Each structure stands twice: as C-alpha cells, then as structure tokens.
Fold:
Amino acid sequence: MSEYQSSELYQARIVALAKSKTGAGKLASPTKSARRDNPLCGDRVTIDVTLDNGKIAEIAHQVRGCLLCQASAAALAKTAVGRDASGIAELRHDAERAIGREAGKAHEPFDAFEPVASHKSRHECVLLPFEALKDALS
Amino acid sequence: MTFDIAKVRRQFPILSEIIDGRPVHYLDNGASAQTPLAVIDAVRSYETTSRANVLRGVHRLAERATELYENARADVARFLGVEPMEIVFTGGCTAAINLVAYSYGPLLKRGDRVLISELEHHSNIVPWQLLRQRSGIELDMLPVTTDGQIDLGALSKMLTSETRLISLAHVSNVTGALLDVRKVVEAAKAVGAKVMLDGAQRAPHGPLDLKALGVDFYVFAGHKAYGPNGIGVLWARPELLDAMPPFHGGGSMIGRVTLAETTWAPPPRRFEAGTPPIGPAIGLGAACNWMAALDWTATHEHEMGLVQRVLDGLQKIDGTQILGPASLQNRYPVVSFLLDGVHPHDVAQTLDSFGVAVRAGHHCAQPLMDRFDLDGTTRVSIAPYNDNSDIDVLLTGVRHAATTLR
Structure:
C-alpha cells in the first residue's frame, strides 16, 4: 500500500476544475447577485449574473471556500450560460446524481464530483454555488 | 512518577482501531477527546449495577445511583480544588455558560458591562449577546495580538466602573494561547468585576486550583476532558450561586411548590432541574480521577514536546504559517496553522486519508477569523495519548497536501 491511502477525493479533474477558475471574479453590472454562507464550515459563495429574457447571459463567482466549492462554481460557470432557472435546476440534478443523492449517471462536467459521494460531510461544498445561484435567479 | 506513553495508550481502546487499513492518529482532541477504559467501566458499572434515578427514590438502586452521582460531584470538585456543593452539573460547557448568562445575568442591570475577547468560542459570545438583548447590558471585546493572544495590555482602558463580569477563554480553542489569569483577576478586582473562565481547552490538561486562581466562575466540558458527552460543569463561588435565581424550572430544583408560588432548592440542586445526566456525570467523575492520577509535570512535558515537533515540522514546509504563539511559552497543546494556497478543509480531508483526524474551519470563533481575515485554519489538538508517530504522519500529510493541492 502506498503511504497515501487516498480515497481519491481530490482527483485530477476536480483539482483542474478548481484551478481553471472559470467564471471567477465579479461582473461589472450584474442583473442580480446573491451570497450564500455555509454556517457549519464558513464557506461563502457570491454569484453575479446578467440575464437576457430570463436566461443567464453572463455569470461570475467569488468563492471563499474549499477546493470542492471552487471546482463546483467553475463547473457551474462553464455550463450556466443560456440557461434559465429550470435549466439550472437540471444541472443541479446532475450534481446531485454525481454525489449520490439522486439515482442515475451524472454528465460532464459534474460527473467529476463522483468521488465526493462517499464524503457526506463535503456534499454541501459542491452544492453551495447552486444555492447562491438559485437565490440570484429567484 | 514518570510518563509511560505505552501505558497511557493501552487505556484507550479506540487507539487500536484500524480504518481503511490505517491506524487512527487522533489529533482532534480539542473538539472531543477519546475516553479511557476507566470512564467506560464506570459508566458501564452504573448502567449495569446501579441504574436508577437520583435523589428521590428510597429503593437500593436509587440509593446506589445517588451515591455514585454525588461521588462524581466530589471527584470533579477535587479535580478543581473546590467544594462538592459548589459544582453544578450541566449538559455541557455551552450549557454552563448559558446558565451563568441566564442566572447571573438577572443580577446585572441596564448599562452594566460584560467584557469578553475577540478570540472567544461562540459559546462565550452569543449568550452575552442574548443577555444584551434581554436586559440592555453592554458588551465589550478585548482585542487579540498578532500572535493570537488576548491583548491584556488593553485591559485597563476596556475596564470601567460599570464592568461587572469578565468572561474569557482560559486557553484559546484556536490558537492555544494561555491566559494570564493573575493579570485579569487583579484588574477585575480593581473595578469590582467578577471573572469567569471558559476552561474547555484547559481542563483536559490536568487538575486545577480554582481558589488559587482567584476566579469567580469556571466552566468546562466533559467530552473534551476524556469523559462522556452530554455533561459539563459550572463551578462558582458559593455566595454567587446562592444569589443566582434558577435558569430551568422543574423537578429537583425546588424547595416547596404550591399553585401560588415556589421556593428554590439551595445550590447546586437549584440549577439541576429534572433528571440530571447521571451516567455522564459518573463518567466525568472517573475522567477527573483518571487525569488526577497522571504525573502532570511529565505529561505536560510530553504534550509540549509534541507541540514543538508540530511547530518544527510545519516550519520546514514551504508556505505554512502558525496562528498562535510561535514558541511553547504561554500556550497549551492546540496548534492552528495555515497552508498557503490550500483551504483548511482540503488540508484536513487530505490528512483524513492518512488516518489523521484534525479539525478545520472557523472553530466556532468567527470573530477571530475576521480579526485575521481568514476563512479558517487547520487545528491540531493534542492529548496525553498522542505520540511522535501521530505528529510524523500529520506532517507527511501536510506535505502531501502542499504538493498536490496547490
């Protein structure tokens, strides 16, 4: 056995998503913004969006949190443009499938989070950006 | 006496546990310590030979239970250097602080001041904020120095003739900083304020002499001091307990109940409404006896040797920073650190895959995190049963996180 008995949580795809920093930052003139905190761990996500006929035209996020939260926000930024609230809900189902909260196979890029399934204490890290975006779109 | 680490470790069955093929390296003692056989046996003995409610029953099991419960009170009192009837059993340390806020609080009037610090655990902040809402007291906060100690240099200007209570962590649950109690007590006496110490992180490291410390209230948690969950302790000077009205009403805390009015039992029963946590109290008594039997000069030296190993090891890893006293001076075995470019939760998760249990996050001390503009820290908290291998695997894991996650 290697010294590192990895549960392989931090697989290359998750690390790469986080390091891509896709959508990281602020929008100059967001239509809506929302901030969500996870009171248990202190992670904080702020999401800005501009909307065009109810659909996301631009998205940016500021994550003050762990690598999983950063990776999830980046995955969301990669896939959110052109979607409305129901389209984002579909992405969330994908994320929930990846972490084992819903049955079925997740699609790219959220399938990268499948290693998180066995770490229940980290599920909220993946879902926090969705919560912030849901607030922004409500 | 000397310190025999193998003998100590044998008393903690959980340290033999293998998870995913790896031994447990338990360094999350500041959140909850492990419990020795002496405690497990005491609770098991109560549950299997003496289980009954306390105080009211006349049957022999009730008498046994009452005797064990009151013996536990005496054990805790001996551990703190005080009298048994000055010990109030509570549901935990948080419950003990809330008891003071709800029962000593009514003795304060609008405009009176309570002084806490920026490094307090939320359990020593929020109860006072709630008291402020209820009764209009003012709340003052001592600042924290850059090395994570309460800045007692600010005491003189923060204390006023309206300050009635100073409530501070004896040892910080984040930085490990040890409070200079003598200085606080002297300053408090000068303005007639009472002093309460949150001993949650101090009590697990050996017996205390509260009379010599000169404080007025002391609280600690059972589960951090090798005892069961669901038990905590409030000690207060008897004249303060006498003056305090009850917090919870119910059975056991009364003198006489009529439909018109109720009189209160004397302390400590006045503050132990309902059936108390009997088994946990008995377990805590055993934990106090277990601690009291250790040679604490040698044990403290062992613990602080491990702290030095942590400090030295982290210093050799690029991008680490200690939040707390840099040396062994003025500190207890709690070490918080940052790893540049890696979130504390990711450090802790990586460590878990090495079998190392630590805590990461804000440690219920968000004002302290705000003070240092941090999301959180990774915290290593050490107990007598920890050994060099725990620290060495910890350091290997931190190096791995540094290599793979940034």
